[in-house]
Amino acid sequence: MPPEWAPQAATWLSFPINSDTWSQNRSAAQAEFALLVHAIAADQKAYVMCGGHGHRKTAQRIILDQHEGFLSQQQIENIELVAIETNDAWARDYAPTFAKSVTSKESDGKLYSIDWHYNAWGGKYPPFDLDQQVAGKVAKWLGIENVAAGICAEGGALEINSAGVLLVTRSSVLNDNRNPSADQSLDQCHIEALFQNLLGAKHIVWLPGDQVGPTVLGDDTDGHIDQLARFTDDSTIVYAWTEDADDPQRAGLENNLIELKRQMNGIDTGCRFVPLPLPPAITHCDLRVPASYCNFLITNQSVLVPQFGADEADARALAILSPLFPDRRLVPLPSKELAVGLGSFHCLTQQQPL
């Protein structure tokens, strides 16, 4: 599995249609989604899945027609609506995790799809039957091999660099609601062997995630890594943090940081750890909205950084991330409405390596 900063052929997304996910603000979330697609299409191909029930016409109107005259010809040509049906918009977790076969020349590696068993984060949000089929349908659409992983996992649970260092959380991957511990064939050693075989992982860093305490309040993924810690290069990791010792997220975040440093220091003594403070609390209809700047998205030329309407915190996140990506432009985009659905840019996307 190439790191996210490796050359990409495209980004895959699913048009937000689920009225339960955005029960009060779906139109506003769709408007933010359109801006995300436009930003991706400025750099590369953006495939937007929007099959069934007239959703293609809605996606066409919101993403393209309403912005006629404002999009460049390149952006228009780079946006392609794909007739694949989905239940919800979180493509990172059910679309293929793309990997390349190992050859003597990396550029010659053959692209294939890894099809994790998907059960909507432990069966939380049925129905998810259409989402379960997406990896296979995308692989068929691209004409590539689709490999059934044999375990339950999600793309947002995986973070890797080009040295094969894979970051995952126990609270997600080893959760009984995904891979029951009673099934001895799905113990940690077996899952590590699968990660090594399917992703080319050489070192697997297991963080506790939400085992000790809540990390990103409102998160419903049981502690996905893409809200907690991300590589910005092979030897730099940004991590979600709060400087408030009384913040209920602090203990969980601190425990993850301790484990991250301990395990990474045994792999790369030169690794840098950069705090990326969380925004102030966001609520919607009296519910806590999970918001983390770690949910940024890397494209070929850009880093798309979610902004949550907290001016000081939003600006601080940009200032922290900017020097970590000297060869890419930082693009701040609104994500407060999308985050009401309990995710942001990284959760909504899946990169297809070149």
Please explain how this structure is put together.
The protein is α/β, with parallel strands linked by helices and 354 residues long. It has a single domain (8-353), classed as 5-stranded Propeller (L-arginine/glycine Amidinotransferase, Chain A), CATH 3.75.10. The chain contains 12 helices and 18 strands. It has helices spanning 26-41, 55-64, 73-78, 91-94, 120-123, 129-132, 134-142, 170-173, 188-199, 250-265, 311-321, 336-339, and strands at residues 8-14, 45-49, 79-82, 97-100, 111-117, 145-152, 159-160, 165-169, 203-207, 229-233, 236-241, 272-277, 283-284, 287-288, 297-298, 302-307, 329-334, 349-353. The protein has a 4-stranded mixed beta sheet with strand order 3-2-1-18. The radius of gyration is 19 Å and the shape is globular. The model has no long low-confidence stretch (mean pLDDT 96).
Annotate the secondary structure layout:
Layout (H helix, E strand, L loop, with lengths): L7 E7 L11 H16 L3 E5 L5 H10 L8 H6 E4 L8 H4 L2 E4 L10 E7 L2 H4 L5 H4 L1 H9 L2 E8 L6 E2 L4 E5 H4 L14 H12 L3 E5 L21 E5 L2 E6 L8 H16 L6 E6 L5 E2 L2 E2 L8 E2 L3 E6 L3 H11 L7 E6 L1 H4 L9 E5 L1
Parallel strand pairs: 1-2, 2-3, 5-6, 8-9, 11-12, 16-17
Antiparallel strand pairs: 1-18, 4-5, 7-8, 10-11, 13-14, 15-16
Which tags fit this structure?
alpha/beta; 28% helix; 354 residues; globular; 18 strands; three-stranded mixed sheet; four-stranded mixed sheet; L-arginine/glycine Amidinotransferase, Chain A
